Structure formats: C-alpha cells, structure tokens
Amino acid sequence: MIRNLATLSALLLFPLAAAAAPCPGNPQALGTERVLEVSAATTPRVGRKHFPATLPLGPKEIVLTFDDGPWPETTPAVLDALAKECVRASFFMLGMHAEKHPELARRILADGHTVAHHTYSHKILNRISIAAAEEEINQGFAEDDYAVYGQRRTAPATPFFRFPGFASSPALLDRLAQRGIVVFGADFWASDWDPMSPSQQFNLVMSRVEQFNRGILLFHDTKAQTAAMLPDFLRELKRRGYKIVHVVPAGARGLLR
Predict the structure, then answer these.
(1) Are 82 and 111 in contact (CB under 8 A)?
(2) In the prediction, which pLDDT does 253 show?
(3) At what angle do helices 75-84 and 224-239 cross, to 10 degrees?
(4) Does position 12 have pLDDT exceeding 60, yes or no?
(5) Which domains does the chain show, CATH number per domain?
(6) What is the pLDDT of residue 154?
(7) DSSP state letter for 32
(8) How far from 76 is each of 70, 83, 113, 224, 247, CA to CA, in Å?
(9) Cβ pair 152, 145 in contact under 8 A
(10) pLDDT tens digits along 165-185
C-alpha cells in the first residue's frame, strides 16, 4: 500500500512540475501555461454548451480534452503529438478500453495527463434507469483506476466525469455532485465524430477556436483524423498566441508543498 501511494504521488507530481519546465528538444513548443485546480465544491458542472458555467479561463486559454480512449490505433499518435509540444490534456477514458489496453491507460498518466472518466461502455445514461446508469458510471471508474493504479474503486482517484453524448439527467447530476465528482461538458468541440479529412478537421476546429477564443475543447483520441491533424493544430495555437491550461483535481497542487 505504501509503495502504491508513493507511486501515485510521484505520478501526480509529474504533470504539475513538468508544466513549468522548458520543453526538452523543442524550445518553440506550445507548452502548458498553467495548472488549474478544479473542485466539485466550487465548479460541479462546467462547459457552456450544456451548463450555465465553465472554468475560469482568460482570453486565449484552452483546456484540451479527449474522449473514448485509450485506443491503440490512434491514442499513441495523440500522445506523441502532445509530448512533442509539452502539452498536458485530460483524457476521459472508457472503462472497457482501459481494461483492454491498460498499458496505454498507464502511459496517459505517465505522460503527465489527467485521467478522467466516460463510463464503462458509452451507454446513453438518460435512457436507462438511475440504478443502471450508476452501475455503468461506477464500472467505468473501477476499470479505469484498475488499469492505471491497480485498484478498483467507485470513488475515483480523479473525480472528473463526462456523460456520453452529454446525456445527463437532473437526478444523475445531483448524485455525482453529492459524491464530489466534477461533470465536464464542453465549451466547443471539433465534431470529429463526423467523417472528414485531417485538413478539413484542422480548418473546422481552428475556426471554432477563433470564434470562442477560450474554453474546454472536446476531441476524441479514437479518431484517425484528429490524431493526424493534432501536430499542425498545436503549432497553429502557438502561432496565434493561445495558451494551454491543464486541469487537475483540487488539492493535487498541495502535493508540491
């Protein structure tokens, strides 16, 4: 247990410490501008596409999020692109994918990213009973954390969750708030569930970045077009003066003290 806690602390420390360091081998990297602690006590639901409030971001500050992974055909390329630019993101993983590809789930954390949750099998939760929905949520928490930390638990190490299809319900939102789980929506997205070429994807998402100026941006690390366009996208963010904010659970920064 002590060894597990020490390992977890070291892994949590890595992204916080690395965010302020120069980017090895790439002095022109986009980098990660700052770390933002997020708590259900103050921001239980974020993302203006679905909720009244979002994260406290300044002009040209972007939070990168990825859903549905880890997926062996695309997630490694996404992680490679982020690593080259020293960018930290949040990955809302499906438990069934983490269960099948634990080495990729562990790499997400080892690379300094936030491990977040997206249910076990992507069921649309407002179409099933509350009991079934909670079972789907808890199974996702358990399998994600088992893949990454070697422990199955329904109180996840990182209390960040996103509803598949953004299909929440008042009852489920209340249950998650009571458990201290932050529910992430999005401020804008890449629409990468629609088939398009990497160049079309790039043009679409850059137009939305310019339109919204700041916010939580949703991608899917399971999409080949996203993996292909991501290096150009990150370089273009740098060229246009955008900054990356990395979200972590409240209290994580305290590990540095």
Answers:
(1) yes
(2) 53
(3) 10
(4) no
(5) 2-256 (3.20.20.370)
(6) 86
(7) -
(8) 9, 10, 13, 11, 21
(9) yes
(10) 999 999 999 999 999 999 999
